[in-house]
Amino acid sequence: MFNLYQRVSLNCDFLEYQLQKADVATLIDYVSHHSNGEEGSILEIFSATGESIAVVIVPISAIQPLRNDQILSVRRLAEVS
Predict the structure, then answer these.
(1) Contact between 25 and 2 (Cβ < 8 Å)
(2) Are 41 and 59 in contact (CB under 8 A)?
(3) Contact at 8 Å (CB) between 62 and 10?
(4) CB distance 40 to 31 below 8 Å
(5) Which CA distances in Å does 81 have to 3, 14, 44, 46, 68?
(6) Which residue in 54, 67, 55 sits closest to 29, CA to CA?
(7) Contact status, residue 65 vs residue 2, Cβ threshold 8 Å
(8) 7: nearest Cα among 65, 56, 67
(9) What are the angstrom distances between the C-alpha of 62 and each of 22, 40, 49, 51?
């Protein structure tokens, strides 16, 4: 389980949100699945300058913790393919 307000990265794309694998987000809450399916995670997405740009819900299995051997990079939000 992840800690609330922990920064995480996505391990798959979410084109409906214009998010890509390896994008960084902050876990802000959990949500139960309405029919006992996989629990969801509520993520807040920030711009490179720290401005909140989206809040999305993705399955817990779609996030992973950040590691010390990773570095952050930036991309334009419109560049999602």
Answers:
(1) no
(2) yes
(3) yes
(4) yes
(5) 31, 10, 21, 19, 28
(6) 55
(7) yes
(8) 65
(9) 10, 9, 24, 23
- 61 — phi, psi (to 5°)? -65, -10
Q: Can you tell me whether residue 79 is helix, strand or coil?
A: helix
- Residue holding tokens 């989206």? 54
pTM: 0.88
Q: Which amino acid is at 59?
A: P
DSSP helix/strand/coil, 75: coil
DSSP 8-state class, residue 11:
S
pLDDT tens sequence for the chain (81 residues): 899 999 999 999 999 999 999 999 999 999 987 778 889 999 999 999 999 999 999 999 999 999 999 999 999 987 555
